[in-house]
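Sequence, please.
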């Protein structure tokens, strides 16, 4: 790091350091970013005002979410891979875009990544981002971010996944258009395409993708060459897949040969 880096770069660096341990102190910021203690404290105060962290005596801790999640969200499988995928997905999204997020652990990680962006969290009289979601947990995360306009589909709640499904959810989705839709899967194979364990979730996810200019599959490598019960739309609905470095060369080739643009999150 260099001392004359921009404030936005410092914010991103501080949030990255905070993500490692869940807490950070002024001394570490000073030593890592080569800034003065006064600058480090001002940066922490600014990030706290954007609700990106909580200030403590001498430092800060990561923002906590004041609700309990289903066990699938708390005991996150392939956490590092999902975080890497989320960072890549977030980087695709320009400020001001309209983004669809389905439920699931990877989409939840994408919501976290978007909320960590200093440009999106800047104070503004208009939304810096619009997110449409059918996931209750993601909606609650975003509810405390006034810089993000959050649209919730409504519908019948699946208590296992916190996702809303059914006719009400689909009616809302048909009335909107998206720049990006990030859709998670239970399985993805070149032969069968993306699949879900629940046919109702598969239906709403496919509809979300169909309403997006850029529909993107997000699948950590443990989901590759796997197949679940319900297909998520026709096989050519998606053109882009973000996965992690655990994907083998053969898996990448199979997806590429089918026509997917495969993006590897390091």
């Amino acid at each position: 790091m260099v001392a004359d880096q921009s404030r936005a770069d410092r914010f991103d660096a501080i949030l990255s350091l905070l993500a490692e341990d869940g807490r950070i102190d002024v001394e570490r910021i000073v030593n890592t970013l080569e800034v003065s203690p006064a600058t480090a404290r001002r940066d922490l105060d600014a990030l706290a005002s954007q609700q990106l962290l909580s200030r403590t005596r001498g430092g800060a801790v990561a923002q906590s979410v004041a609700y309990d999640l289903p066990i699938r969200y708390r005991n996150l499988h392939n956490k590092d891979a999902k975080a890497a995928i989320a960072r890549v997905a977030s980087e695709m999204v320009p400020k001001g875009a309209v983004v669809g997020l389905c439920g699931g652990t990877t989409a939840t990680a994408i919501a976290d990544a978007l909320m960590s962006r200093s440009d999106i969290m800047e104070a503004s009289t208009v939304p810096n981002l619009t997110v449409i979601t059918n996931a209750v947990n993601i909606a609650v995360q975003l509810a405390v971010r006034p810089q993000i306009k959050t649209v919730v589909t409504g519908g019948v709640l699946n208590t296992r996944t916190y996702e809303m499904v059914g006719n009400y959810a689909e009616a809302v989705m048909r009335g909107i258009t998206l720049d990006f839709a990030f859709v998670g899967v239970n399985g993805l194979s070149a032969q069968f395409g993306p699949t879900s364990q629940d046919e109702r979730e598969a239906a709403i996810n496919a509809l979300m993708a169909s309403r997006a200019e850029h529909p993107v599959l997000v699948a950590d490598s443990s989901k590759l060459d796997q197949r679940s019960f319900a297909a998520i739309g026709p096989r050519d609905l998606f053109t882009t897949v973000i996965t992690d470095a655990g994907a083998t060369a053969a898996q990448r080739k199979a997806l590429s040969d089918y026509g997917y643009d495969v993006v590897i999150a390091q």
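The radius of gyration is 19 Å.
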